[in-house]
UniProtKB/TrEMBL annotation:
The chain crosses the membrane at residues 6-32, 53-81, 87-107. It comes from the Bacteria. This is DUF1772 domain-containing protein. It holds the Pfam family Anthrone_oxy. Keywords: Membrane, Transmembrane, Transmembrane helix. InterPro entries: Anthrone_oxy.
Length: 159
């Protein structure tokens, strides 16, 4: 079993990646479906508001803090290579850093930025909204599974 600083890092990794998985799961399970059911102008306005509040400290500390923890776990694991859990720690870190954090930057954020540039009541917004919901949701499903898998990998490292 992992002990000492590795144990603490892995537990913090479990909590952080698990919280992010839960937030993304909520969007995949019902938030995006509820927004898609609204008239496009309302859905666009609501999602733009969500995106403004998502970059506030409450979520960003967990989201980016988890990425920092994952980097620390990966670096420490590569340098020290513990007797147990090394592979699981590296897998958990890679899943979160590439398939959650990285994917957010290259897939979800650009779509959010494009949506933010549109006037919710404009024809362009109504035309883009179904595409946005479909594409953003697909990438969010991937982030949900990846963050949950990272959580599982860190839990396995603890056992």
């Amino acid at each position: 079993m992992i002990e000492g600083p590795y144990f603490v890092l892995a537990v913090v990794g479990v909590v952080g990646t698990g919280l992010v998985a839960g937030a993304f799961c909520a969007f995949s399970a019902f938030v995006m479906r509820a927004l898609a059911a609204l008239p496009p102008s309302q859905g666009v306005a609501a999602m733009n508001s969500i995106n403004v509040f998502a970059v506030r400290p409450a979520f960003m500390i967990v989201f980016t803090g988890s990425a920092v923890v994952c980097v620390v776990i990966a670096v420490v694991t590569l340098v020290v290579w513990p007797d147990e859990g090394a592979v699981e720690l590296l897998v958990g870190s890679a899943l979160y850093l590439f398939d959650v954090f990285g994917l957010t930057l290259v897939a979800n954020v650009p779509r959010n930025n494009a949506l933010a540039r549109l006037d919710p009541g404009a024809r362009e917004a109504a035309a883009y909204w179904p595409t946005y919901v479909r594409e953003w949701s697909v990438w969010n499903h991937v982030r949900t599974v990846a963050s949950a898998a990272a959580t599982v990998a860190y839990v396995l490292a603890l056992t």
